[in-house]
Design a protein that fits this description.
- By secondary structure, this protein is of the alpha/beta class.
- The chain has one domain: TIM Barrel (Alpha-Beta Barrel), CATH 3.20.20.10.
- Helices cover 39% and strands 17% of the residues.
- The chain has helices spanning 2-22, 40-48, 59-68, 87-93, 103-112, 142-150, 174-189, 205-210, 220-223; strands spanning 30-34, 53-56, 75-78, 96-100, 120-126, 155-162, 196-198, 215-218.
- Strands 7-6-5-4-3-2-1-8 form an eight-stranded parallel beta sheet.
- The radius of gyration is 17 Å and the shape is globular.
Length: 233
């Protein structure tokens, strides 16, 4: 618990400093705790410290945790690749799906969202760096998919999500973030209602905040290294 408390404090301090540099208010930024592979007990501890939004990459893993934590008012985000055979469970058990990258997935989520629940919040995943191994719609196709989502029942288009290229000695990820923010602004200017730009992780949250991110997906620097498949730390 003490490590989690220190980690959360450090992340909030980094966000505050980045916002100060960018001339933004920290209240503009949502911290999404990426809890994949971490046990429900750790999520419960972080919740007790005030964290409310948690992101999961695998539907079945998330459903098991949701069962264990069903007394907590957690805002669950699905942020991993979504196969069509998992859309019903995602539509029923999450508040957000951030990885919509094709019309088929968007339509299935809309059809399968129970009407008794609030509209499912959707983000369109953009492959901003055109990496063949990554999911996401190409930037030039994001507008068409966004306009389609706006016409669907039981869902609400919220924004864009991206997983840019990793930073290295030869590549500065801030350029990817800049292009994402430019696309975000272009779509808004065209009349598409967007309020969320989900980009930035532990290693580069400062660049993401400077380039307009409104939601940071933080895993390692918040919850610590993910356990290995054998359960070791």
């Amino acid at each position: 618990m003490n490590n989690l408390k220190a980690n959360l404090h450090n992340i909030r301090a980094r966000v505050e400093q980045a916002c100060k540099k960018a001339g933004r208010a920290p209240s503009e930024i949502t911290i999404l705790a990426v809890s994949k592979k971490h046990p429900a007990t750790k999520i419960r501890d972080l919740y007790a410290l005030g964290q409310r939004a948690f992101g999961e990459n695998y539907v079945q893993e998330a459903l098991a945790k949701q069962t264990q934590l069903d007394t907590l008012e957690i805002e669950w985000h699905f942020i991993g690749p979504l196969q069509s055979n998992k859309t019903r469970e995602a539509a029923m058990h999450f508040a957000w799906v951030q990885s919509v990258d094709r019309a088929k997935i968007a339509r299935r989520l809309a059809e399968q969202r129970p009407e008794r629940l609030a509209a499912l919040n959707l983000c369109i995943q953009v492959n901003i760096d055109r990496e063949p191994q990554k999911a996401g719609v190409l930037p030039e196709d994001a507008g068409d998919l966004a306009r389609l989502v706006q016409t669907l029942p039981n869902v609400r288009l919220r924004g864009l999500m991206a997983i840019p290229r990793m930073g290295s000695e030869t590549y500065d990820p801030s350029d990817s973030y800049r292009r994402m923010h430019e696309l975000f602004r272009q779509l808004r200017a065209s009349g598409i209602d967007l309020d969320t730009l989900s980009m930035g992780m532990s290693a580069d949250l400062e660049q993401a905040v400077l380039q307009g991110s409104t939601m940071l997906r933080i895993g390692t620097d918040l919850l610590g290294p993910r356990p290995d498949s054998d359960g070791s730390a």
